[in-house]
Every structure is written in structure tokens, then in C-alpha cells.
Amino acid sequence: MHKLKLFLLINFIFFELINAQTTNLAPSKPFIDEYFGTKIVDEYRNLENLKDPKTIQWMKDQTKYAHNLLKNISNREYYIDKRIEFDKRQSFSVSNINVTENDYYFYLKKRPEENTAKVWYRKNFEGKEVEIFNPEDYKPENKKSYQINYIKPNYDGSKIAIALTESGKEISEMIIYDLKLGKILPYIITNCWPSDSGGISWFPDNNSFIYRYYPIIDPNSNLFLKNTESVIYRIGDDPQKLNVLLSKKNNLGLKINPEDFPRVKLPTKNSKYLIGQLSGPVNFKDTYYMSAKDIDKKNQWKSLFKKEDKVSDFIIKGDDIIYISEKNQTNAIYSTSLKNPDFKTPSVLVPNIQDEVINSIYSIKDGFIFSSSKNGVEAKLYSYKDGKTKSLQLPISAGDISATTRNDLSNDFWIICSGWKNESERFKYNFSTEKFVSENLTPTVEYPEFKDIIVEEITVKSYDGLDIPLSLIYNKNIKKNKHNPLIMDAYGGYGYNNSPYFDKTYLLWALQGGIVAVAHVRGGGEKGEEWYRGGYKTTKPNSWKDVISCAEYMVKENYTSPENIAIWGASAGGITIGRAMTERPDLFKVAIIDAGVVNALRMEFTPNGPNNVKELGTVKIQAEFKALLEMDAYQHIKKGTKYPASFITGGINDPRVTPWMPTKFAAKLMTDNTSNNPILLKIDYEGGHGGDIPVAQKYDNLADTFAFALWQLGHPDYQPKENTKK
Predict the structure, then answer these.
(1) φ and ψ at 591, to 5 degrees?
(2) Staple 519 to which of 154, 155, 363, 550, CB 3.0 to 4.6 Å?
């Protein structure tokens, strides 16, 4: 009885704290837009002014409030402690591996006690490793925490480009380390973002490369992310004097828009051609080419293929382009000559593979390899050599595969295999022996605590009869009943394949007695182009309706109940999760949206918005305006409705989704919600879109999500502490 009284007292204090939030509602200055005769009331347009003192204060108050509340949830430290324990067990981690043509290995390495990764290298796989660069030593006078978000050595390994960013801004500055001299060269390339622009391309001289330049890097500027340029940098030149290769200003005949991202790459060291693309958040791109020997001449670009040709990936071999295309709803591999390109009647090298989607293609000396997947969760690998396709036996079963090759220098290649339950493993394939050999740079670690966790890949009928792939992760000894806490993750945008990877957050959830469900909804790329188009602009409602159908299935099959379901999404996944919770608030107990697109009608008025018009649509076209209105979760919040407990996050330095978007959503939700469920807004004032932050900060953010969800789903170990104060 005493414990019961104590539990009730603690919850009373918490509810008092939650109710106290209603006394600090956001300031509201409604604004009315009119599109095609439809008036749209935006009650919190004033919050878009991030320089307004009232907006600043409210965001900080809400963040402080959320921080105090979350830090007082019992067992919150469990998540952080387990992640640190796993890191120590591994002793160190390795990522971003690059192997040069002369067998130099460059990579990022981080030990458990370190908060950021360093650059290391070794001569061949068995060689002694040497530390090259520690970002903690970079510009100490700035007193900032820099993270490495990209590395790329040149062909002979004599130099390596290293990109650094801080506080989640993603926009980087790049330095060059000279291995022969053993020092950083005195040239800093500013205003770049190589991790989001396909990286850089070194030239055969090993002394120059192509990167993309961002003229404006202030995310509050209307010109941020506009008029970017692909430029050539030759080591020794002044980095501030740009040698532009492809841009709106220099290439008027290509009709490049300010929001387009012109990207140029040299496909291989000996390639005769340079490839230019107008890239961005789209699957298919207008693509151009020019002779590599004409690099210093102006206006040499010629059209290669249009986005209507639906080319998703390609390689260049000699005078031929070999490519994956989804044209005519047929996923296959084709070839045509660059001397006289013909994308209407190309040669078919690999026809459509039934029940599989060909995802990626990689060049090797005597042919190519390619990967495919079934439902986005079962990966396969093939080789194409001497005109014959051969299925390669993988060393371990994999939900996802990535590969690296030496292009035309060798037939050997490397793959990384990933899965829901297994740490990523790296293997080298030898064509002579036709065998994969383990080549992990990271120690192989056992996780006996996960031995009883199983993965179940199923399909669920959506509202319109289509089969939605659903990945389930849970302890095999769990009993099916309505009390199981379930967290459902969904994205559904940009043709992105939410493929299996070793996510310790999911596995820790299962260790706490919960069920993880990853819904592979339409709008993603799990089933190819048609699946992507099934959740795109006017068909976007399928994305959240698929989530709803998956949740209903889990309830119907007695895995859980509406009172025990949390849904979770980030970025464009904010559309999917935001609309699922506003359309069916009765079906979910918790909604978590990280840096989400929850105000789609206003997206194109953000710095990253014009480029995203290609994916989401524009208010300037009536049909697309209606689609944007339908996918706008903010506009679908209804006064007097009981909404799920909600945890809404954003990053003050986010270059992709401006932080006022989650702020507006949380403000309206707090005002209109009539349930006793908490609505929390947390802005990370040292972060951005979620990446490029120190490990400790990342774990702390995930611990908040983990604890909030389990608290609200009633897990007894995650209830508020007794000493919670107002």
C-alpha cells in the first residue's frame, strides 16, 4: 500500500508539472495565406522569426522544461551506460575506410574514451597503423568541438582531404594532410559540404580535386544552399580564388536553377570523361558529360541523360556507360556508348530479376558487380564478367550490402554486410579463389545479451491491399499480449531504403521487454521506383496510412495495444509520423519526431525548401498545394483533440529542417491538445539535424527518446523519480 501511495504521489507531482506547462503557451500572431481560393490560417507564423526575443525565450524555456522532466525519469541512464559498455567491449571502432591503388588504408578510428574519431592510416591491411590527425587539435583558439565528417585520400595515398564541422552544422571546411611532409598544408578550403554532395574527386595528378562550394553558409540567410558551384582546387592555389567547373552563372545554357546542386565527378582515375549532375533530394537527375581533356575550356558540357530516363546508378567503362534504370517500370542494367549515347534503345546487360530490386553497381577491371534486395531487407550480390551474370555466395546473410572496388585496376573488391542483429562485417573478395576473406579493421565483439532476440520479416496488408514489409525485433520469449511496449520506426521518402543495420537502440529496447517494428512504407525505395512513387507528392498519404495499417495489424495480432504503441520518425519521416498521429491519435500512445518536416506547406520557404520541391511539391501548383496541405501535420492539429504524448526535437544549427518548424508544431499541439499526455519540445543548442555531434551528446539525445517512450508506455522501471520538482 505504501508503494502504491508513493507511486500515486510521484505521478501527481508529474501531472502537476505537465499541467503547469499550459501557463507558458507560445505567443501567437496568426497569419492568413490564400492559395487557389483556399485560406490557410497559420496561428504561429510569428515563431518563424528566430531572432524575436519572445520566440527565443519560449524555445529556451520549453527546452529547459523538457530537460528537467526527462532527466528525472528513473533508469534514464540505462541507455547511456549500456552504449558506453558496448563501446568499451569493442575497444575501438573504425569507419570511412578508403583503400588506395597502392594499398594504403585510411580510416576514422575512435576509442571508447574519445568523444570524436581521428584519422589513421596503414600500409596494407597487415601494416602498422599511424595516427594522422586529431580534430581536438584543430584551431584550439576557437574552443569548439570539431567532428570529421568526410575523408578522401588521393590515388597514391600521398595526401588526404579531411572535412571538419562543428555543432551539427554539417557545412564544413576542408584541410589537406601531406603524408610525405607529415603535416597539414597551409590551405583551408571553406564553405564546403562533401559528405552531402557525393564527396570530392581527385585528379590523376594527385594534386588537385573537385568539390562543391556553398557561397552562403549562414542558415538564416535566404541565399543559404543556393547558387552552389562545382569547382576545381589545385593544391598551392589560393582557395578563395574559385576555379568554377559547373554553376548556374558559368553555364547559362544548362538552365540551372538557384536551388539545384551542380555536382561534378571524375568516375575513375583514367576516365576519359567528367560527369556533371544537377543533384539534390531526388532519385533521378539531369546528367551531363564532357571530355576530361577539355577541363579548362568553357561550356563543354553536353547532355547525357535526363531525369526522365530514370537512371539510379551508373559506372563508366572506357567509352561506355553502364547503368541501372527504372524506365518503363523495369528495373534492369543497360549499356550505351558515350560516343553516341542512345538511352531509348540501349543494350540490356542484366534483365529484371523477379522479386528483387537492383540497387547499386560497382566497376571492376573485367566487368562489374551489383547488389540487389528483396523487400529492402534481404540483400544479394552478383558479378557480371565476360557477358555472364553470376550470383555470389555471401560470407554471411545480410540485410544490406555496400561495396568498394578499385575500378579498372583489379577484380578484387570489398563488401560490408549489415543486419538487424549482427555488427557490420567487412570482407575482401578474391576472384582467383572465388572466396570472401574476413578483413575487419574493427575487433569482432560478441553480444551474448542479444542471443534471445529474434528478427521476423513479415508483410502486412495496407488499407488498399498492398503488402507492406514490416521488420520485427523482439525477445523470442516474449508473450503476445496487449501490455508489450512497441516502438514503430518509419520514414517513407526520397526513395530511401530503410535497410537493416546493427542498431543498438533497437536491441536495447528489446532487452527492456519491448518490440521494435520497422515499417517499410511507401515513399521509400524498398520495392523500387513504383514503391517510391506510391508515397510521393499527391500519393504521400500512403506513407502514413501504411504506418496506421501496420499498427492496426500489431494490435489485431495481439502483439500490443494502442496504449502501448510509440511511433518514431525523423526528418522527412516527420511527415509520416506527424500525419499518422494527427489522423489516428487514438491508435498511438506516444509520438516522437526528430527534426521533422511537420509544416510541409512552409517547407519551400526555408533555405533547404526550394530543392525539396522536387520531392514534396510547391504551393504554386494547385494539385501540389493540395498534396502539401494534406501532408502538413501542423495544419491537421485540431483543437479539442486528445493527442498522444509527444516528444518533438530540433537542432538550432540544422541546415536541412529549420528549427522553427518543430517549434511551431509543438506550440500548436500544446495549445490544442486536451489529453493529459505531455508535449515536450527540445531544441539542441549544440546540434543540427542529428549528425556530426560528439558521441556523448548523441547518446544523451537518444537516452531522452528511449526514456520518454518507456515512461509514457508505462514501463515500471521508467517512472518519474520521487524528487521531481516544479
Answers:
(1) -130, 130
(2) 550
